[in-house]
Write a structure and sequence with these properties.
Keywords: Hydrolase, Protease. One of its GO terms (molecular function) is cysteine-type peptidase activity. With about 300 residues, the chain is an alpha/beta fold. About 45% of the residues lie in helices and about 10% in strands. The strands form two sheets. It has a five-stranded mixed sheet with strand order 3-4-5-6-7. Strands 1-2 form a two-stranded antiparallel ribbon.
């Protein structure tokens, strides 16, 4: 049942479409079984899972909002390692790659490539083996960072490199489409929101927090954002597990997933063959422990 692949958890990888995906969308995103299983508790969520979630959210926006302003969700591969580390003499190549990455998001809704209908643009970022989210308000020309981690690091040390490059390139892209807020996107200061549910000890669930922020944020200030989530502690741990289950179910069973019926059948067959609940729980725990060990090995290897 389990397929293998190189892990992309919170590392910057420029992945091609995976073979034998378990979730696959008409708009281009796909996730293999091994990566989808990182939504199990205690595991670092794979980047491709966030990409698939972004695809689902964008699809739902286009079918529910009609002619109104929409939210646009981008994938984690918009800002690649090559783009971030490009030299000054390679700026045109950097911008060309950035635009090409943006275009992959508009396969299902090409008319939105001008961003004229977009109110909020969501960009999940991978940096320092950590996920966080930056959201651009294209009506106000402002931007905010949503990050669960309260590490105490400064804006300059933790965010400035990636955010500066993203703002510069995104502003240029908007200007090419004559967007009225293009200049503001590049020049206005980005706000780092101090989230009440921020964490100091949790280094595992940043991908889940990004998915939650993508789903829940509507452009409000923190004071006016009517969203209740537990502070760091046992209640938050339980809620994160619930969110993992919720998002796994949503993506696997979503109408946009062309493998939905196959997954339904496999789930039924697995349940009918494994009626011993205690044994099933033991099997699940063994798989989670195994994946934790794999992720720990990958982390050590990447640090060398």
């Amino acid at each position: 049942m389990v397929e293998t692949s190189k892990k992309t958890t919170a590392k910057k990888k420029d992945a091609k479409k995976p073979k034998n995906p378990i979730t696959e969308w008409a708009w281009g995103a796909a996730t293999i079984r091994d990566n989808m299983q990182t939504l199990a508790p205690k595991l670092k969520v794979d980047a491709s899972v966030i990409d698939s979630f972004a695809c689902v959210l964008s699809y739902e926006e286009t079918i529910t909002n009609g002619g109104e302003k929409i939210k646009q969700y981008f994938h984690t591969r918009i800002l690649t390692t090559a783009i971030v580390n490009a030299k000054k003499e390679d700026e045109e190549k950097q911008y060309k790659e950035f635009c090409a990455n943006l275009k992959t998001v508009f396969k299902g809704n090409p008319e939105d490539s001008s961003m004229d209908r977009v109110e909020l643009a969501f960009f999940p970022i991978i940096a320092h083996e950590h996920f966080y989210l930056i959201v651009f308000n294209l009506e106000k020309g402002t931007s905010v960072i949503l990050d669960n981690s309260n590490s105490g690091a400064t804006y300059e040390s933790k965010y400035s490199k990636e955010i500066h490059i993203l703002k510069k390139l995104f502003s240029r892209y908007l200007a090419s489409h004559k967007h009225e807020k293009a200049s503001d996107i590049a020049t206005k200061k980005t706000t780092l929101m101090k989230l009440k549910w921020g964490t100091k000890q949790n280094v595992i669930d940043c991908g889940v927090f990004v998915m939650m922020h993508m789903e829940q944020y509507g452009g409000k200030t923190l004071k006016n954002w009517k969203f209740d989530f537990p502070k760091e502690g046992q209640d938050q741990k339980l809620e994160i597990i619930r969110m993992r289950i919720k998002y796994a179910t949503k993506m696997l069973m979503h109408e946009l997933n062309i493998h939905r019926e196959k997954i339904n059948q496999e789930t039924f067959e697995f349940a009918s063959k494994n009626t011993d609940k205690a044994l099933m729980q033991s099997m699940i725990r063994e798989e989670i422990d195994k994946k934790q060990e794999e992720q720990a090995r990958d982390h050590v290897a990447s640090a060398k």
